[in-house]
Amino acid sequence: MSRKKVLVLTLISIYFLSTVAANGSFPALLAFGDSILDTGNNNFLLTLMRGNVWPYGRSYTMKIPTGRFGNGRVFSDIIAEGLGIKKTLPAARKLFIPPSDLKTGVCFASGGAGVDPVTSRLLRVLKPSDQISDYKKYIRKLKIVAPARANSIIANAVYLISQGNNDIGISFFMTRSAFMRGIVTSNMYTTKLTGWNKKFMKQIYDQGARKFAVMGVIPLGCLPMTRVLGRCNFFANLLAENYNGKLRNGVKNWPREAGFRGSKFVYVDMYGTLMDVVKNYRRYGFRNANNGCCCMPTAIIPCVNPHSHVFYDFVHPSEKAYKTISKKLVQDIKRGLA
What we know:
By secondary structure, this protein is α/β, with parallel strands linked by helices. 44% of the residues lie in helices and 8% in strands. It is built from twelve helices and six strands. A four-stranded parallel beta sheet has the order 1-2-3-4, sandwiched between helices. It has a two-stranded parallel sheet with strand order 5-6. The chain is globular.
């Protein structure tokens, strides 16, 4: 075969592959929010909310705690792999991130964070403004390592957002901060919370983001910490569903607004998928859905097999639980943001 034919075939192949990548895949995943997504940013903060201590990381490579709040990989890692991007998502505050990782995305989330202005201050973790600041720094680094592709990566990356779990679970239920600010009912609070989340995403949008995968909160009343006599806490779940309903409506309507022109949103149903696993845990290969594997009065000594539990500690799902719910959710993200 002549060199000209080889060159033509090569160019056709490159064009075909780039077209497929543009139409059917995502160049990067960028994660914002709380401990469901945090891959180690809190390691660099003066806070008690840290996952770089034993018994976290028992199922991770070399059994080393990395700052992830679980026995192994967390939801952001699982989604990155499900989207065909990479197996793990590095923390944005990591001291050194290889150029290849910068091009395929990082995690800005912080365990204990929320969009209520009070939440992150209570736990001394990264505020929404801190995560936005880290995102801007990331963009500057990306433009250095990939000057020709940076804008395309930013516009076509998936932005995975998890906000509300700590706001509802801590700021609303465990403190009187909302009431003291004049937010006297749960319905008022979930409305404010939806607005704060929208404002946070608008700040990300203004930096070039266009594809948002917005996670609802998990079944907060069915966490090992919030159960009452072994049963799910009805009122906590009711508030979670109230917020999720408003968030779902927002995800439908925001792309039509001038402030989000050209954007795509998809709702990620964390509540429904995880609740299904909690209710039908044996069907999914678990042996315990009520208690955490570790870090509880019922599990002072961590369980032998963390994969047998839906929850690894008092609030965080296990790696196996994340993998179980991600099968449907990855497909939802692909369909919604393609």
